[in-house]
Design goal:
4 copies of one chain form a homotetramer. The first copy, chain A, is an alpha+beta fold. In chain A, the strands form 2 sheets. In chain A, strands 3-2-4-1-10-9-11 form a 7-stranded antiparallel sheet. In chain A, strands 5-6-7-8-12-13 form a 6-stranded antiparallel sheet. In chain A, a hairpin with a 2-residue loop joins strand 5 and strand 6.
Chain lengths: ~280, ~280, ~280, ~280
């Protein structure tokens, strides 16, 4: 049910992260090991912060494993901060406007999971999106609606609070319609400076999420790995499923938690949705 | 700004109507003569009534002129009633879910034109769609929203009244937001028995629309044309722009009119939008 | 490494064979059980004999499991004889001209397998294709070149002999270049009347191939299955991998064999390549 | 019949050249003024020299005017040397492997025009391609075969001589088959340092080709144009059809000529095909 990867650290060529490692995200598009679905062939996307004022986004409906243009782009673009996503569609069409990451101004947003029985509460959710943001919704997915809800609830000012409010609102709407576990998933979002990662599900059995331990320690453990000498100490990867072949390189993010990757000021904290006052 | 063609009459191979004639709809996808845009290369679609319980719909984002699968399909499928459409996108993405014709149950729907400043009133329009129909909206276009408004207003029971109510509602919403001429366009819709065609614009300068004169008279005028001997007397074509090379074969549909092609009971009547009571 | 299905018998809707059964070919595009690759998401195709003079062919580069147009087509087209194929690309591009089945006049051709080290002997093979056929080669695949070799060696007159000569030629060219096992695979081909299926590999470990036992016996065994009462006694399916849920319905085709499905005159015989005289 | 643009000079964002100017190449994809066809909607490509060892190539079968990924790429990639192409297919399929520019090692190659009756001489031409290069031919186009012929005749060592030999060979093969005017077109090719442009046709009525006069003079004439102050004196554009709105900015390249854009050592010289010795 989708896999994503988020990187924040030293500037690298995208291909060094997305193609080179063992069990890379591109490999996972064809054969994921941990995913609810093993094939993520219903499109992909990568959003990166580069030299232009707003982040670039490249999305396609083709399976990532065979997309020649993605390969070319990743070999020619380097970035200090990017989010990539491979998709297994559930319910919505395979079209570019349904591919992650989504973008609004400086912000990128990707998600692995779902809003349960989305069709039955989509109207309620869409109505809560700020009127000025409404026309920007271009696709059909639960993820994009969640993004615009988070923006409505203040993502650009207080990301953690906004995501908590958005998921809280989804849960309230869902439960009002008798849905037991309205939300499931992991989220990556960024403003080009920091990277936020969330792991939460109403059921308490969330999709997997991992992040790298600090590079200095990894460098001690694997002194022969050149890539570890190239990247800065504060470089960090967050992924749905580990990539590469370095045992001990990954921590699993706990249930109901949220992490901020902030170039030296990383933080991991508990996360809980914030129920809307008027609906509870 | 799109071209469409609707056929009701004797069963024919789709290719005999869509490919064979001079200035066919497929030719118009590349070089339209009358259209606001001369190239309609942003996707196409054809919906046909065949042997299955519901109409078939084939839609693609490729330019119609070069689509090999469309060519194959049209050579192998025959139908007594079908609607085809070539698209010039204005504002919305080139994706399959934005291609006409749209389908709901037995109904097909295609449109050439636009709702002016759609982004600014889309929310108002979408909110008026019946809650049970809301989850079926899959794309971004004004045309699809208009279709679901017409369904909300009773398309399946009284098509002319429902389209009048839908356009009336669009005009009321638009004018409330200061839009001078909210609606422009021609519409084709069918339930598999009859075919309805509408020509109307708030400005009174509507997109062109033509229909064929009766086949018996054409046969007298062009006795050497074999195709005219193959089709029944009550066969009729309605098109955005004339196809073929038979002078005298086409009538222009008047401004603000509506036609029903009903296999022998054809009717042409004036058309006016029906303003909503609560909004006027 | 691709999966294919060939049907010859009573006229049926394509969807009844391609979508309805358990573990259908469309399911196998996402999760094949027996294939060398488990995902066949690099395009698909279906060729069918219908009412038009030549067979129809619908091919697409999208994964079959999510292709809405394929679904529509299969629900609206019925045929007594068709070949469908889902593809896992190995080495060649994901493009429509590389999708099976290939067509020449009345003939269709699909293949599961490969010519080993094709790049190194492609030139030799292409040079042996009849000059009049050469311009028809449109894609990059080994399968298409093998088809044109078989046509060059007389496919239209003596299919079994022509396929034996084509594979024999491939083996001779390959071995001259030091390739140990030049050919691997199963082939389906038809002229619209009969259906030929081949299972052969230079190594003697061929891709799997199965065919249905006679319908009369199946009907006795599964009297409650309605589909078995609908199809004629001489209906037969040949598949890379069994579909449906009827134990005892399938025979495995032996190594190095060839079958003709000829509506009542079915035949299974040994198959061996025919080495070219000038090259041995 | 295609339009191309080649740029050599100061490093610029691709979008500043491909999107910003009036009548830009992307505009020409929808409405070309000079072309034999007015719509170039059958795919596009851009090849650029950047920071990676080999040039990047991004090619797509969608019309360029609506391709969101091309837009993103061009806003985020800058380059001192690039070739872009929009395509109107004649005879060959709309597929990525038929899109220009073609790439071999450091070399890029694009073409506007055609080899007349290509199908009838394709085999002769393909046979003349060096055996080691043969497996690299991936598409169906005359342009790609011409590129591999030029490589066979020494493009990497003496580009002007190699192109003269390749076109000479095409003319000899064509005339042997009774083709009056075997070659038509303009060609752009580069090794990442220099840019070569050719204008030639067997008939002496070649497709149009233009290049910019020197920047210093343009700066005097249009002192208020900021872009002219940003680019270096030795920057030059070569285009099928002028872009922008600066009268006096363009020279038409003469019939049967060849130009080298070499960052300060530009040269314009007569061009004539070189007939093969063995065929004349």
């Amino acid at each position: 049910m989708c896999r994503w990867l988020a990187y924040n650290g030293s500037r690298v060529r995208l291909s060094d992260v997305l193609y080179t490692p063992v069990n890379s995200l591109i490999d996972q598009s064809l054969h994921s090991k941990y995913g609810a679905e093993t094939t993520n062939g219903d499109g992909f996307g990568v959003g990166w912060y580069g030299t232009a004022p707003t982040p670039g986004v490249f999305r396609s409906v083709e399976p990532a494993w065979n997309d020649q243009n993605l390969r070319e782009l990743c070999h020619h673009v380097s970035s200090p901060l990017f989010i990539a996503h491979v998709r297994a569609a559930i319910g919505s069409s395979v079209q570019q406007t349904n591919c992650h990451p989504f973008r609004h101004g400086d912000w990128l947003w990707a998600h692995n999971g779902f809003i349960d029985e989305f069709a039955s509460i989509k109207r309620d959710l869409v109505l809560a999106v700020d009127e000025s943001l409404f026309p920007e919704i271009k696709g059909q997915t639960d993820t994009e609606v969640l993004f615009y809800l988070a923006l409505t609830f203040g993502l650009e000012h207080d990301p953690v609070d906004a995501v908590a409010s958005a998921i809280g609102f989804v849960e309230a709407c869902g439960r009002r319609r008798g849905i037991k576990y309205p939300f499931q998933g992991t989220i990556a979002t960024s403003d080009g400076e920091n990277l936020w990662a969330f792991r939460y599900s109403s059921e308490g059995k969330s999709r997997s999420l991992f992040f790298t331990r600090d590079v200095a320690r990894l460098r001690e453990q694997y002194p022969e790995r050149e890539i570890l000498h190239q990247v800065s100490d504060d470089t960090r990867l967050v992924v749905s499923e580990p990539i590469g072949d370095l045992p001990g390189a990954w921590y699993e993010m706990p249930e109901s938690s949220c992490g901020v990757v902030a170039r030296g000021n990383d933080e991991l904290m508990p996360f809980a949705p914030k129920p809307p006052q008027q609906l509870t």
